[in-house]
Amino acid sequence: xxxxxxxxxxxxxxxxxxxxxxxxxxxxxxxxxxxxxxxxxxxxxxxxxxxxxxxxxxxxxxxxxxxxxxxxxxxxxxxxxxxxxxxxxxxxxxxxxxxxxxxxxxxxxxxxxxxxxxxxxxxxxxxxxxxxxxxxxxxxxxxxxxxxxxxxxxxxxxxxxxxxxxxxxxxxxxxxxxxxxxxxxxxxxxxx
Length: 192
Ligand code: IMP
Prior knowledge:
Blueprint: E1 2-5, H1 10-20, E2 25-27, H2 45-60, E3 64-73, E4 79-81, H3 94-104, E5 112-123, E6 126-138, E7 154-156, H4 168-174, H5 176-191
This protein binds inosinic acid.
């Protein structure tokens, strides 16, 4: 079936197509000529993902899904969480966000963190959510050039490389989003 993924983030699209692309056609916002800034103004990942999916469904009528992700750091009471994109301020980039994170963790021995993704699917008016988590730790310096966001400082449990040092195909197999996408894929294969 055709499913719109409410994103233009190329990394996310590649991940989604890697998991779902064999059985479904995954369209981006560009593919449906949507250049509107989709609102994302709630305080939880769940509400933001649902808001984004509902926005696309109401405006364009497509079956669709949207994701929202946060980096949750244990020593920072699970912050930045839903505010991960604008941790260092509204106009800041990933490098600024990482610098702030490393500064906040400077005096902490507890480097434990996780990425958590919520995907909300709207299919024939039904609304469903899928959660994906990857546990790991925050290292003290930037390592690697792949990926995006906090990838250069996040090492997933069981590995020695940051997400940004791994081949994208490996990250896309084990990531928080891959976990949520696999649940979505399983749901679709059982019901459609
Ligand atoms: P989004 O709203 O789902 O795009 O995620 C919010 C922020 O979390 C992004 O701006 C990134 O900083 C971070 N983020 C999301 N997914 C990833 C990832 O796979 N790796 C690293 N950072 C990520």
